[in-house]
Amino acid sequence: MRRVKEIGLLFVMLNGFIAMAQENEALDKRALKEANNYVYEGNENLAEDNYVEAEAEYRKAISTRPNDATARYNLGNAYYEKENLPEAFGRYKQAGETATERPDKHKAYHNMGNVFMKNKEYEKAVEAYKNALRNDPTDEETRYNYALAKELLKKEQEENKNDEQNEDQNQDQQNQDQQNQDQNQDKEDKDGDQENKDDQNENDQEGDKDKDKQGENQDDKGDQEDKKDKDDQNKGGDQPKDEQKKPKPRPGQLSPQQVKNLLEAMSNEEKKVQDKINAKKVKGIPVKTDKDW
Question: Region 237-244: what's the mean pLDDT?
């Protein structure tokens, strides 16, 4: 009896799950239909270049069915048409992640590649087209874009390599120029030092010459003075040196010899006079005699 009740309970639960699934399926169908209507309206507005209305309709579709890859993909197309590449890439990326069917993934990755090509990001474009071909290897447009992206990437790499080589060469040339400039500067400094040294030596030599010249002039002056002294001595003729030292008498003045002679004459005359006086005194002196006691 208990077993029958358990089986009945399981049957009721199973019917409930079935009914819930059927209800969810019905809701999903209504949501899908509603979302498809929004997408359709969005496509109509996009065809008429009415981007604002198209964006609004696509956003309604995404809100109605969050996992709908089609609405995100079409919204990405609207942004791509307006050259809003960052927003376009974001929507394509969401579409590729939410898509459950390979054709939907293929379209999302293909358009991601187109965004990278617009931005000249060729390496990323190659990877995006490669992912698109994984989901649809038969798409010729994707294959063409993939080959073009590879070719542009190769060209870019070669240009970058050449640029790097040119940059290295320019850097080497700059280094060589700098080295030459440093060497020239060192040479100029050395030449300047040598020139200063030569100037100093020249100045020293000129100073020595000046000193020698000054010494020669001094010697010449001394020689001239000695010569002058000799000339002065020679002007005295053969006179004795003692007489040369004697001062010459001035006009109207007695010479020392004349003075000496005059003094001697006066002294002789005075002596004669004194002798006469002394003679007279001798005659007048009485002769002493002995006293009589």
Answer: 41
Whole-number Å distance between alpha carbons of 181 and 175: 10
Domains of the chain plus CATH, in order, are 27-98 (1.25.40.10), 101-154 (1.25.40.10)
pLDDT tens, position by position, 101-133:
999 999 999 999 999 999 999 999 999 999 999
Provide DSSP, 167-222: HHHHHHHHHHHHHHHHHHHHHHHHHHHHHHHHHHHHHHHHHHHHHHHHHHHHHHHH
pTM: 0.53
Instruction: Quote the CA–CA distance of 32 and 18 in Å, as a whole number.
Output: 20
